[in-house]
Amino acid sequence: MSVPKAELHVHIEGAATPALVQRIAARNGLRIPDGVIGDDGRFAWRDFLDFLDTYDGATSVIRTGEDYRDIVYEYLVSCAAEGAIYVELTASADHAAGVGLSDEEHLAALAQGIDDARAQTGIEARIVMSCVRHFGPDKAREVARRTVAPPHPYVTGFGMGGDEAGFPPGDFADAFAIAREAGLGLTVHAGEWGGPDSVRGGLALGVSRIGHGVRAIEDPALVRELAERGTVLEVCPTSNVVLGLYPSYAEHPLPALRAAGVAVTLGSDDPPYWDASIGREYRVAAEQFGFSDEELREITRTALRAAFVEEDVRRRLLDLV
Fold this sequence. Notes:
Layout lengths: L4 E7 L6 H11 L19 H12 L5 H17 L2 E9 H6 L4 H19 L2 E9 L4 H12 L6 E7 L11 H9 L3 E6 L5 H8 L5 E4 L7 H10 L2 E4 L1 H6 L11 H6 L3 E4 L11 H10 L5 H14 L4 H10 L1
Parallel strand pairs: 1-2, 2-3, 3-4, 4-5, 5-6, 6-7, 7-8
């Protein structure tokens, strides 16, 4: 497919392939926990909770700046091979700090991966630093403060992931205010495992984008509000279907949301866990949802217009589409 592609929703640690995880583990002298990688060389998991355990086991071997550089570089090069021109990578300050990396080491490694991939392929990328809901509001404020002081030119957005249940977005307003005042773009995971109220709570944080957001379809008034606001949904169809949020692509609400005027983009989320890629998500949109090449180009334009990137870079990328 020759349509230029852009991705706004992929987690850095979740982008490491099984082969790369094995190489990283060997380099760091670590053993990958049993059951993480199956005999077929793929990540092995049975259901959502087991996926989380597999994810934690795989990411437990990621320890150094070199590891992060390699994940970013290899992922971006693979995206460029599928026609992607821009990717926003969701980074976890908490994971990096948890393995003993300073923020400076972490960001330098991510930036090196971006620079090396750009030098080889021309692909552009930026970073959304994310806090974790279930670590609580105090930790989120700390991550926000660390994200903005000192600022990094490639860290252009701030977001929040983690368990939607029991952690209302309003409790995290202070963290998002810190990021907003520093000029960062704002996004939040909502409307995946939580319903429409989760999306409404996310909107109250002042975000321009919602990670996932597909459960908004259950509330027609909310769908209208998203369309009127111009809020952009970072939709990850394969992730939603494989994890069981929807039984099949035929029942996925992306086409209905788009038909209702909601701005949508495509993302792969944690791609190697479900044999996904940004190229495959575009193919899913074409083959399962019936989108034309021009409709797919418009999805790319939507992503680039919503991207947390400098205006001159945005214009250059839009010219490519």
